[in-house]
Amino acid sequence: MLDILGYEIYEGVTVRDALTVVVVMLIAVFIARVVTINVRRALADKVRRDQLEIVAKVIYYGIIVVAFLGVTPLLGLNLSGLLVAGGIAGIVIGFASQSVVSNFVSGLFLLWERPIKIGDAIQVEGVSGIVEDIHVMSTVVRTFNGLYVRIPNEKMFTSNIVNYVANVARRIEYIIGISYDDDADKAVEVIKGVIEEEPFALKEPSPDVFVDNLGDSSVNIVVRFWAPVSEWYDVKKRLLWKIKVELEKNGITIPFPQRVLWFANEVRVKES
Q1: What are the b/e assignments for 3-33, b being 16+ CB within 10 Å?
Q2: Which positions ≥6 away from 177 have C-beta within 8 Å?
Q3: Is residue 228 classed as helix, strand or coil in its secondary structure?
Q4: CATH number belonging to domain 115-163
Q5: Full-prediction pTM beyond 0.85?
Q6: Architecture of domain 169-249 in CATH?
Q7: Tens of pLDDT, residues 12-68
C-alpha cells in the first residue's frame, strides 16, 4: 500500500499527493456549502435576496479557489506559468467564443449596475415575467404563464428593460365610454367618488378624471390614478368593476358599439 501511495505519477507528484488534493478539494466544497448556508440564514432578514445570492456565490467560489491555490504545489504547478498559460488560453477562448465572453462581461455589468433584481416583474426582448435568478452568463425569468426562460446576459444588457416594480407607485388608466344621453359631469363625479373610497388609491399624484374625446358610439372618459406597485394589479382589477357598478346604479349606461346609417333616398317597402 505504501508503495502505491509513493508511486510517482509524473515529475515528483505521487499518488499520495493526488489523493491529498482530492481530499482537500472535497473538504473545501463541503466547507463552502456549510458556510454559504449559514451566511444565507444569518443575513436572510438583513440583506435583499439578490444581494445575498451574490455574496453567497462569492464566498462559495472564493473558498474553492483559495483551497485550489493552496494545493497547487502538491501538483507541481507553477502559478506564474499558470497565469501566462491562462492569459494565452483566455485570448484563444475569447476569439473562439465571443458571445460567451460578451455574456460574461454583460453579466458583470448587470450585477454592478443592478437595473433588475431577483423577484422583479420585468419585460425584455418580448418576454414578460418574474426574475428568478441572475447568473454571470444568463438571467432566468419565469413568465406569468409559468414558463422557464433563460435570457443571455448580452441581450439583457443591450436591450430595453421594462421593470414594472422598480418604482414604489404605478399609474392605472381606464378609458370608459358612456352614452351621449347621459350626464358626463355626473359620471366624472361618480368615478372620482369610487377612487376616493379605495384605500390604495394614492392622493398624490392626485387622480385625474376627464372627458377625452367624443367617440363614434360613446363619450369617452379617461380615468388616471396611482397605486402602490405592490397592490397595482389587484387595485386595477377591483376598481374597474366597482366603477361599472356605480355608474349603472346612477343610471349611466356603457353603450354597445353602434352605427347610424343614413340613406340618400327614402327606402320604400313594396306591398304585395
Answers
A1: eeeeeeeeeeebeebbeebeeeeeebeeebe
A2: 215, 217, 218, 219, 220, 221, 254, 255
A3: strand
A4: 2.30.30.60
A5: no
A6: 2-Layer Sandwich (3.30)
A7: 667 777 788 888 889 989 998 998 888 888 767 655 676 677 778 888 888 888 888
